[in-house]
## 1
Amino acid sequence: MAADLAARGFEVKLYNRTAERIREIALRGEIELERENGTFCVGRLATVTSDIAEALDGVEVAMVVVPASGHRDIARMCAPHLREDQIVVLNPGRTGGALEFRQILEREGCTTDPIVAEAGTFIFASRSTGSAQARIFRRKNAVALAALPATRTGHVLEALCDAYPQFIPAPDVLHTSLDNMGAIFHPTLTLLNAGWIERTKGDFQFYIDGITRSTAHVLEVLDRERVTIAAALGVPARPALAWLKDAYSAQGDTLYEAIQANAGYQGIKAPRNLRHRYIFEDVPFSLVPLASLGAQFGVSTWGMEAMIRLACIVHGTNYRQRGRTVEDMGLKGLRVSEIRRYVQEGRINPFYVPAPAPRRPSPRPAQQRSAQAHRESAVALE
Amino acid sequence: MAADLAARGFEVKLYNRTAERIREIALRGEIELERENGTFCVGRLATVTSDIAEALDGVEVAMVVVPASGHRDIARMCAPHLREDQIVVLNPGRTGGALEFRQILEREGCTTDPIVAEAGTFIFASRSTGSAQARIFRRKNAVALAALPATRTGHVLEALCDAYPQFIPAPDVLHTSLDNMGAIFHPTLTLLNAGWIERTKGDFQFYIDGITRSTAHVLEVLDRERVTIAAALGVPARPALAWLKDAYSAQGDTLYEAIQANAGYQGIKAPRNLRHRYIFEDVPFSLVPLASLGAQFGVSTWGMEAMIRLACIVHGTNYRQRGRTVEDMGLKGLRVSEIRRYVQEGRINPFYVPAPAPRRPSPRPAQQRSAQAHRESAVALE
């Protein structure tokens, strides 16, 4: 994303917690990028740093592009440096990313009022292909995004629209968080194909081969749990089958049929081993927050619980404890009406009088915005 | 087993609940058997029937050779027909087979005092190869057996020793039930290789390929739970690693190493699909009773629970409800000392005065036993 933005003329600062990880890029000052159409370009970066204060200084938007397991760290480090109305976008938030990020900012005493938003998924299918090289396989057409509170979503979309017009508004962060398809597909397929992955180093088609009638049945059970949790929160989450039809035009009456008919899954190999973010990210930051919400609202999450337990055993890690719970998201003990008010308006109690709202800059007209594109910046973290 | 016994000169009655399943054998009156050394023989049966009264009439030993899911049915059907001191052997009992069998006999009002025993495993590795054909791949050297109560184990071994001298005494049915290795290996390997099994119709080596470092780690976790449950009951169960060393001389410091080094696992293919007894038998009649004992005695069975849940989801069946619990085994609410007294002596309360014990026939001397071998009979159920 840093290379893509820089190559397209945006001013970009690249930050990584670990200087070593961006050393080569810092030396060259640029990243080589192979685009989805096979052409190559170079993104020249304004700054490459592992100093968060330097990275955030003066930027309009901070794009956080790390596994969700890094969100807490990033939030803690950003907290002292974020200024009024500065925008932080989690790409993506998985489940409850923006909610937890805001909780941490508050706990860390961040008194300015930055805007925290989350995307439903990462806008690219892409890989780092070298120490200063990247490749974009596919650029998604539409990615849902919501700010916390939702009243600020429009402001974020406007700030991003020159760079990524693909972002479309979600009603609130509950929608982006509950329409988390990775939660359904990633851990289950990885665990129910654990032996195959480890024995062959992932040498089979992850979706086309790994999703069989029985594994698809487990996916359906988990998906039903997710949709039911969403319904308990008043959110009409999209079932995975409907999502496959929308996103890939994949037809079929069952998840199994739709996946077998999905050309978009052709050629995607399985992970090379089980130490993969499909488990260490998607279990604690997708399944655990979903199951935690299910528990709070009396929705059975039998299938999710089985996967969480199994992942804990396979990795010898207590993902339930390390994962994101209703407590981390600041939702513990809240009623549905309170949660919905919180994600919409940013406050729980309707009688609570907030400090005077910071004055928003009036939206720039479109023609001005385009001219100012070079002032936008991204903090991209791999 | 029926063919083997008959071919070796024992008088055998073959019974199956479903007449259709033994129709071909009934027509021919015999079963063709390929033995482990590659030679062929024929076992001529005295009776082939689906009438349980006829099957049990006059036989000394009833060998029950069915998946554990059939034990309840068999127990109910046998109850009215079992006579004093008639021997029923479950081949094998899985976990708690003899305990539940006896509970059902009592509930069904069986007033005679038949002897119920269970083997730790089936004495053959064998397959039915046709409607009246069978093949024995391997004959095990030593199979633990215990009667309920243990005071009668010697009597059962004596009755069986002409036919199968491989049977060796276990201290009691807790030992045969808790040394259940299938509980550890079968469901976990099937579920963690679910996609692979279903996609390739089981075309890989189940143990050699399917047991990887991660799946072996899950096996170790479940095995530790089993050994801990046994310890809570005062039973020194053998860890799977030690069992692999004893049974197969497989060396290694971890389960993974021992399995990879186990020549005995070479060539064993995975199940062809997931509708297999590795789940529908081993989950409800191995894992469920183990987890149920764990719950009663405060032993965490996190790993077993994950496997049980997953199996329930994959098969859309409530195996926990259908499975064998402490209640079914007649152990619910009993203390360890009470359970141990029960399996040893057949009664829970030391102050309880049982009805006068039926007079046991004095053991026949060995030379007589041999001559009487033809009077032994087996009810073998495939």
## 2
Amino acid sequence: MKKIIYKPIGIIHTPFKATKGMPNQPTAGKNVEGFIEIQPEYIEGLSELEGFPHLILIYHFHLSVGYTLRVKPFMHDHLRGVFATRSPRRPNPIGMSVVRLTRVKEGRIYIKDLDITDGTPLLDIKPYIPDDRQKVERIGWLSQRAKHIRKKSVLRSTNTQHDKEE
Amino acid sequence: MKKIIYKPIGIIHTPFKATKGMPNQPTAGKNVEGFIEIQPEYIEGLSELEGFPHLILIYHFHLSVGYTLRVKPFMHDHLRGVFATRSPRRPNPIGMSVVRLTRVKEGRIYIKDLDITDGTPLLDIKPYIPDDRQKVERIGWLSQRAKHIRKKSVLRSTNTQHDKEE
């Protein structure tokens, strides 16, 4: 199939440095603050963004190298199909996060609730709208988690690039 | 910035043919059925996907040509920053939809609640997890819609490729 070429519109800055083997964050994400530096040529496109409490960020997992079609998520024993996980090691290493918008000022977008590695290239920003909100009746294999691990931690950890993946 | 290259993992098939000037769908999306044909080499990655009621699809707006940083959404009078809309004409024409998963069978993923043009190249599939569900307190400029237009219609129409955008 035909290749598709994109160009980053900015860089996401967060406190999560891309260090292999760093301790897993038990409360990763919630309230963590950072900002996006938008490339000057795209700043005009941010107009009226501030009216939305949440944004969808679509970004490139720049540290992800290669992929396997079955992955063993952090703290889980079984292999799962990569598309049933949020692992960064996927055929197209695209990440998606819903973050809280704090403020937009001079090409900087201040955001909260981050679980994204520092220096990540941003591809797109979309406003979070009611259609994006769905009832979550089941969470597939995630419900089989080890009973002593907090659900939140396991869910979050499927989305970070610094997770250990065996 | 460095270019990023992706390769489609499959094609999304829907009843929405890409015809310019087709009537705007007032109830577009809800209950509309379609399927994704996954490329044979990625089928193994679909394992255990069926446990999730909703999927996040990330795809390429293949019919979108060029962009402007301010767009006039369908049925709205004012120009808005492109990142505050779901317009397909964006710097990186990436689409994101949350769809209902019906069934996975032999490399075909049957889905519902579609608002995607037929033939759209798919880049990634992710399970929809509780972290993706956010309270929507405000919907920015969308709340200033003409009073006789149903909210749902306006919201949906910001995401389709066959919308008229002046």
## 3
Amino acid sequence: MPEFKPPRPGEQRIDLPTRADAGLHFIGRIRSAYPTPADCPKNTLERTEQATIEVDPPYDQGLAGIEGFSHLIALYWLDRSRRDLIVQHPSHRPEPAGVFSLRSPVRPNPIGLAVVEILSREGNKIHIRAIDCADGTPLLDLKPYLASSDSVADARRP
Amino acid sequence: MPEFKPPRPGEQRIDLPTRADAGLHFIGRIRSAYPTPADCPKNTLERTEQATIEVDPPYDQGLAGIEGFSHLIALYWLDRSRRDLIVQHPSHRPEPAGVFSLRSPVRPNPIGLAVVEILSREGNKIHIRAIDCADGTPLLDLKPYLASSDSVADARRP
């Protein structure tokens, strides 16, 4: 495990269980323009660095039929994130906030989520418009984006 | 492990690795009106059965600040799902399809995802409008829904 910085004032850490409740399989990797987590943008709305999702065999058989969708939800494992900060104070926020009101990569289960636009598919590679994670990030799942249930254009935030 | 039915014609199964690449911690449970996965609705758009997300201590400290959001993204572990069907033939589809073009609970990493509307919060319990999973489903993560990056109202599907 890498060494992590001590929590900032107002941040709160917890002890995580030593034993896992369930196990994940890495099914591929995300190739991005960002070598390390420190290089990653906070959001990708204005970014133009394309990225590629590589799905390893035998999981790539599961890509059959994705061509008809314009967008996917990608879930990935933020393998270089600490997991123990339950209250965090990001530099762009006036006050500390609970992890479940933040999209921070630091979470008890560091699963990253991005809605990605498909540009093209080439075998087991899906070229996408942009993503916020570091090169080599392990892939966990891809789901078709369904506007009927996933899009809430008028969702409120503070 | 429960016994699973044999694949239907056109379905494809794979052997999953025996060893996990990463481990998850269950951080709470989802309380719903559906006792088993067989009772769960295919989608919740027209459903009115309320549900509750219970976040266990010490993870509940991470809820600070969620009040300002109208919607959350819930990630949960579909612990009663098989993981080995990479091509599936759901009864409502004319042809078999790859798992990554389906929102089936059967996936190599059976992580369920729902965009949920917050009705109220009562300590470590969040009452929500509806969700599609069975009572007792383990919770993995909650993320604030951000319309700017999560809402794609004109996303296309086949």
## 4
Amino acid sequence: MVNHQERLNRTFAALVDPTRRAMLARLERDEGGATVSELAEPFAIKLPAVMKHLDVLDEAGLITRSKRGRVVTVRLSPKPMKEAMEWLHRYERFWSDRLDRLAAYVERQEKEARRKPR
Amino acid sequence: MVNHQERLNRTFAALVDPTRRAMLARLERDEGGATVSELAEPFAIKLPAVMKHLDVLDEAGLITRSKRGRVVTVRLSPKPMKEAMEWLHRYERFWSDRLDRLAAYVERQEKEARRKPR
């Protein structure tokens, strides 16, 4: 249980930063992963800042890094996001309930309209 | 777009803390909401700390607070979680792809087994 909470803490903390979210989105599009410089390219931040973001993502288990010569390839490892989604899922009934109520309301209004004399 | 990113920042930041997640889970069970002292009860933290957590949740739009006399009732307002889930959804294909591959593998193994002479 503690581990589960600990993992959720780290996953949500990793997702707080928009640069890190953009990096994950970039990795989501590239099946084969991306190099560190490819990942850094769209952002106006220096390499040490990029490396710090990658460390946070790595500690949260959201990426893997593999080195070949001097090139580090980063790949997405989205399993922790599954846990985060499962945590969020229980709240889903709130917005689906609301949609159900809306559908019921529309249906009642339509019945009402049909019943009225023209 | 900026607003959307801003909202995601705040939602994920609110969800980082396990006490805040536990408060949201408590509110999820209670349709009618909970008073501040009811919410505080399970935690070994002082009232100012509780109020700080509620401020973070409120700023993220995850709760609403209404006052009647001296009693503040807190209610869940889970809409921002929907956006967070929608953000996470795009990664879902990764684990469902994996399940598809597993199903295909099991199917192949079964075919193989059937083909073998007994």
